[in-house]
Amino acid sequence: MKAKITHLLAALTLIYATACAEEGKKEKAMETAEDTPSEPEQKVVKTDEEWKKILTPEQYYILREAGTERAYGEVYMDFKKQGEGAYHCAGCGALLFSSKEKFDSGCGWPSFYDPAKAENVVTKRDTSAGMVRIEVNCAKCDGHLGHVFEGEGFDTPSDKRYCINGVGLKFVPAADATDTVTEKE
Q1: Is 89 annotated in the active site?
Q2: Is 62 within 8 Å of 144 (Cβ atoms)?
Q3: Is 80 in a helix, a strand, or coil?
Q4: Triad 101, 121, 184: Cα angle to 5°
C-alpha cells in the first residue's frame, strides 16, 4: 500500500511539474511574441540632442520619454475632425495608422483598432506606474506612441483599442497622399 501511495505521489508530482513547465513555455512565447517585432527596413537612431532639435518639447516628452498628453486636449479635438488620410510617426515619418482603422472610443485620445502598416508598429510589456499594459512604439525610431488594450467590447474587427498620443502623429490628408511624408534622417 505504501508503495502505491509513493508511486501515486510521484506521478502527481510529475504531472504538476509538466503542467508548470508547459505554462511557463506559453508565457515565454507570449512575451517573445510581444517583445520581438519584425524589424523595419531601416532603423532611425539619433542622440537625445538630435531628437530635441527636430521635435517640439511636447513631442520629445511623448515620443522619447514615454509621456502622455492630456486627455481631450486640442490635438484630440483636431483628430476627431480629420477626414480620410494617414497617420505617420512625428519623429521619423513611418506610416503607422490610417483613417480606415480610426474610431471614436470616447477615451480622449486618438483610437485605432489596427495599424495601417503592422511592421511599423511594435508592442512590448509595460509595467510602469504600477500597472501591466502593452506599450505601442514606432518600430522605425522606437518612439513611444501609447498603449493597446484588448477585449473592451468595441464593435471593431479586432476588438483592440490602440490608444495613441496625437502629438506623436503627423496627419497627412488623403488629398495629399501623392505627396508622401518625407522621412526625417
Answers
A1: no
A2: yes
A3: helix
A4: 105
